[in-house]
Design brief:
The complex is a heterodimer of chains A (328) and B (324). Chain A has 328 residues and is α/β, with parallel strands linked by helices. Chain A has 2 domains: 209 residues, 3-Layer(aba) Sandwich (Rossmann fold); 77 residues, no CATH class. Chain A is built from 12 helices and 12 strands. In chain A, the strands form 2 sheets. An 8-stranded mixed beta sheet of chain A has the order 6-7-8-3-9-10-12-11, with helices on both faces. Chain B has 324 residues and is an alpha/beta fold. Chain B has a domain of 168 residues: P-loop containing nucleotide triphosphate hydrolases (Rossmann fold, 3-Layer(aba) Sandwich), CATH 3.40.50. In chain B, α6 links the parallel β7 and β8. In chain B, α4 packs across α5. The chains are: A alpha/beta (328), B alpha/beta (324). The complex binds adenosine-5'-triphosphate, adenosine-5'-diphosphate, iron/sulfur cluster (SF4) (2 copies) and magnesium ion (2 copies). One magnesium ion (MG) binds next to α1 of chain B.
Chain lengths: 328, 324
């Protein structure tokens, strides 16, 4: 169905945290494929393992307490989990870069934004300071920052949230990565600013052709941005398909429930209650036996409470982890 | 006929900015700058706008938790603007507020039963035993198990903590409730549970809500009427479907068009606004929106547009509509 070359292929990734209170299986069965130039969404609720997946790809899991305990992460056909720290350092910020929800935590408050981007460039490219500055100004211009020469010497706190996010994008794209990971990059922004940033990301993706992994809890954002969507629940991918398929015929009860429960902005008001998913996300210390969604699932059977379902391909390109998938 | 429970007229709240050696007022944040709205008994008014537009300040000033800088607050036909805290006391129990943050707003050292009971204690309502009974009944109503009354907030999930917040706000049986972003901090699958709870409570207890939120889909689901704020001003107010289907103010149009929709097959025309929201310390002259408005004209700089009623219960402040 997709004949573009595979860029990232994550197979049964498992990343655990060994805390005082016990083992947290933060990521416990993430399978994810990203083709070159593809926009892929990773969606799920707080704590389901989205950021840990991203940090695993970047090999930035704090160890201790964290450890990647299983699986493979192929990037351009090579397993990143087999790379040395030095090799990873060269890949990060060059071939793979990442932007975060709160740019203030990833920008250094004591350096000008121009110096920070220039430094990122010279770390990976053999160019001199003058060229790096020129490239930085080009990047600031590319991400729609007005008066880039003047902005070059401003500090992060002198900018609005939307501007800082643009700076982060400029820095992340300055080395022309093959993969950009965006972890809740627009979540903290107002809708009109979010629309600006999403519009910018879409435009840059078309222009530069990099693949993007968009991590968010917002289904509407991935509906607008992603070609393919992966739904995560309690550390596992439970469903993955094209955006169209996910929204048109969700097969996993969790995906289905989630889509039913969100109010529709485009529909007239009704006084009916929303079809909510009962209960809550399980604690990572007390994962239920069998399917981790079973305590909340209206279709759960005895089998669901005993055995763990595998991720299976129900239709071409449509993967579902469920014993009793919803009919399409 | 509908009865007005609360109304604000030209409501104003400025926060002074102190500076200089003598700590004098050097400027002010014009958080709420002469706004008008009303809420009828039993209905929900949605208040939307970007962060910093003045929604929280408007809600708190309406309840007189902040003393207004100017304008009037009329509650059940009575002007309460100038009432002293003592004179406000008997009214207080009828007006409650619930906050966004289910973590920060509950005292971590108090068992939840006491947290919910506190407003009853403050207003000295009933006997000790009656208060406890009211607390247990309220816990049951909002879907918390009464036997959890001795547990502390950290032992509950975000959604449960928000239920505790609802129970505490409702235990005095108020008439008016300000809901300040009550679901923003919750997980997606929990949000709909709390939305349903708030709607059920409203129907059961005939509550009146001021519902502050930035998620426009949720506002559409919850509200009877909606008011849109931009930089301290209300720019448009209308009945729910009217506002969402026929927005007239250029800012409302841009705001609605910016909302992503959870359907990849819907491709919407998007108005991408340029630039950021200006500072409320020095808002632009004339129309506050003019620096980002795609239709700005010379008059927009010189004159503030008046609020005009374009059809019954649909008011807009924009020169485009007065020119004709
Ligand atoms: N450094 C850490 N030490 C211990 N546990 C951790 C650590 N980092 C993450 N976890 C746990 O791993 C699980 C997954 O966390 P992760 O940050 O990936 O969630 P997420 O899906 O990104 O959620 P959110 O939407 O809130 O960002 C959670 O249970 C979290 O508490
Ligand atoms: N106590 C305060 N002192 C000074 N400025 C304030 C105070 N509270 C709010 N503000 C300012 O008033 C404006 C409106 O704030 P707020 O009502 O919280 O907006 P919203 O709820 O719409 O995000 C903002 O610029 C904010 O920084
Ligand atoms: S495996 Fe069973 S419990 Fe899990 S989602 Fe499917 S039907 Fe529900
Ligand atoms: S008054 Fe002028 S600037 Fe303001 S919204 Fe209308 S057209 Fe735009
Ligand atoms: Mg995260
Ligand atoms: Mg607020």
């Amino acid at each position: 169905m997709d004949n573009r070359e595979v860029l990232v292929d994550i197979k049964n990734l498992r990343t655990f945290f060994y805390t005082e209170d016990g083992v947290v299986p933060a990521v416990d069965g993430i399978d994810l494929t990203i083709h070159q130039g593809e926009v892929v969404g990773l969606v799920g609720e707080s704590g389901c393992g989205k950021s840990v997946t991203a940090l695993s790809i970047m090999r930035l899991i704090p160890d201790p307490p964290g450890k990647i305990v299983g699986g493979e992460i192929f990037f351009h056909g090579e397993d990143l989990l087999k790379k040395s720290n030095e090799e990873m350092r060269l890949i990060r910020g060059d071939k793979i870069s990442m932007i975060f929800q709160e740019p203030m935590t990833s920008l250094n408050p004591v350096y000008t934004i121009g110096d920070q981007i220039s430094e990122a460039i010279t770390l990976h490219q053999k160019i001199n300071a003058v060229e790096a500055k020129k490239r930085t100004i080009e990047m600031l211009h590319l991400v729609g920052i007005p008066e880039p020469e003047r902005r070059y010497s401003q500090y992060p706190h002198e900018m609005s949230g939307g501007m800082r996010q643009r700076v982060m994008i400029a820095m992340a794209l300055s080395c022309n990565p093959d993969l950009l990971i965006s972890d809740e990059a627009t979540t903290a922004l107002d809708v009109t600013i979010q629309a600006q940033i999403l519009d910018l990301m879409r435009g840059l993706q078309k222009k530069l052709g990099m693949a993007i992994l968009i991590i968010t809890h917002n289904l509407a954002v991935v509906a607008e941005m992603a070609d393919t969507i992966n739904i995560a629940y309690a550390g596992k991918i439970v469903e993955s398909a094209t955006a169209r398929e996910i929204f048109k015929s969700p097969r996993h009860p969790y995906t289905y429930g989630l889509l039913q429960s969100i109010p529709k902005f485009t529909e007239k008001r009704t006084s009916e209650p929303l079809p909510a998913i009962e209960g809550m996300v399980p604690s990572p210390y007390h994962m239920p036996k069998g399917c981790s969604f079973n305590p909340r699932c209206p279709f759960a059977t005895e089998k669901c409470r005993e055995e763990e379902p595998e991720l299976v391909e129900l239709a071409p390109g449509h993967m579902v982890r469920c014993f009793h998938p919803i009919e399409s | 006929m509908e009865t007005r429970l609360v109304e604000v007229q030209k409501l104003k709240k400025f926060f002074p900015i102190k500076g200089g050696v003598f700590s004098t007022t050097v400027a002010s944040v014009k958080a709420v700058d002469e706004i008008d709205f009303f809420i009828n008994q039993g209905e929900t008014l949605g208040l939307v706008g970007e962060s910093g537009s003045g929604k929280t300040t408007a809600g708190r000033t309406m309840l007189k938790l902040l003393q207004p800088t100017g304008g009037k607050i009329i509650y059940k036909g009575k002007d309460i603007t100038k009432l002293t805290p003592n004179e406000m006391r008997p009214l207080r129990r009828n007006m409650q507020i619930m906050f966004q943050d289910p973590y920060g707003s509950l005292n971590p050292r108090m068992p939840v039963g006491d947290i919910i009971q506190e407003p009853l204690d403050v207003h000295a309502i009933g006997t000790r035993k009656e208060r406890r009974q009211a607390v247990k009944a309220m816990m049951e109503t909002v879907g918390l198990r009464p036997e959890f009354e001795k547990r502390y907030p950290h032992e509950f999930s975000g959604g449960q903590r928000q239920r505790i917040g609802v129970a505490r706000a409702l235990v005095l049986n108020p008439e008016l409730l300000v809901l300040d972003e009550p679901i923003s901090a919750l997980d997606v699958s929990i949000q709909s549970q709390i939305i349903n709870l708030l709607q059920e409570m409203q129907q059961r207890l005939n509550l009146t809500y001021l519902f502050i939120a930035h998620d426009l889909a949720v506002v559409r689901h919850m509200s009877d009427r909606v008011a849109v704020m931009y930089l301290g001003k209300i720019v448009e107010t209308a009945e729910n479907d009217e506002l969402f289907d026929h927005p007239l103010h250029p800012y409302t149009q841009a705001l609605l068009s910016a909302v992503p929709v959870p359907d990849p097959e819907v491709k919407r025309e998007r108005i991408i606004l340029q630039g950021d929201v200006p500072s409320p310390v020095n808002p632009p002259s004339g129309c506050h929106f003019r620096t980002r408005c795609p239709y700005a004209m010379p008059i927009c700089k010189e004159q503030e547009p008046a609020m005009i009623e374009v059809s019954p219960d649909h008011t807009v402040a924009c020169h485009l509509l007065t020119k004709k």
